[in-house]
Amino acid sequence: MELYYYEMSSPCRAVLLFVKELNLNPVMKKIDLLKGENLSPDYLKLNPQHTIPLIIDDGYVLSESRAILVYLAERYDRDSIYYPNDAKTRGVISQRLMFDIGTLSSRFYDTYSEFFIPNGSNRIDLKKINKLGEAFEFLEAFMGDSLFMAGNVMTIADYSIVATVSTIEACGFDFSKYERVSAWFERCKTEMLDYEEINQKGADLIGNMVQPYLEKSQAMNYE
């Protein structure tokens, strides 16, 4: 297996964490987005959409992190722990994955994208901050009394969402008032293999890029 990745990418880190959990040893192919390596002719042949992560497994090419997580679970998680066979549990996992890409990640990028684009305003929009906070309110409600995002057992939903949440935290968003999400986040840090090395370092790289702009931006209001 080959895995194309970039450590600053939260979708890539979600896959990297899960690959570690499954004890897989893919050939690692770093694609530096800041250098535009994802736009090279060779990479575009693999993925015309030029996104990462991407895997090649016995000639099978697959992109999109959440699709990769599902594929890896179905092929390599022989005990069906992380993507159980039960249709209702899979339904909840799918909802969480779709919430991650459609709401949580989307609102994060909408809020902080000004710091990553040329001629951006470099200012925080408080309305967008509040919308991001609303996404955490949804997560808090989704969890109920569960230990993890889709129940009391860790699933691929946790790997996807923890990569997003860690990036949001590294960029200065304080979600500590959401007690269930905060407890879940700490639980993931301790239970996911090599969490610090695989995930936190990449999240901190993003945070380090954003923090100088945040210091110049208007004060953020999370209420």
UniProtKB/TrEMBL annotation:
SUPFAM superfamilies, per database record: GST C-terminal domain-like (SSF47616), Thioredoxin-like (SSF52833)
Enzyme Commission (EC) number: 2.5.1.18
Keywords recorded for this protein, A-Z: Transferase
Lineage: superkingdom: Eukaryota
Location of the GST N-terminal domain: 1-80
GO molecular function (one): glutathione transferase activity
Pfam families with a match to the protein in the record: GST_C, GST_N_3
InterPro entries in alphabetical order: Glutathione-S-Trfase_C-like, Glutathione-S-Trfase_C_sf, Glutathione_S-Trfase, Glutathione_S-Trfase_N, GST_C, Thioredoxin-like_sf
PROSITE patterns named among the record's database cross-references: GST_CTER (PS50405), GST_NTER (PS50404)
Record-level GO BP terms: glutathione metabolic process
PANTHER family per record: GLUTATHIONE S TRANSFERASE D10, ISOFORM A-RELATED
Protein's name according to its UniProt entry: GSTD1-5 protein, putative
Taxonomy of the source species: Eukaryota, Metazoa, Ecdysozoa, Arthropoda, Hexapoda
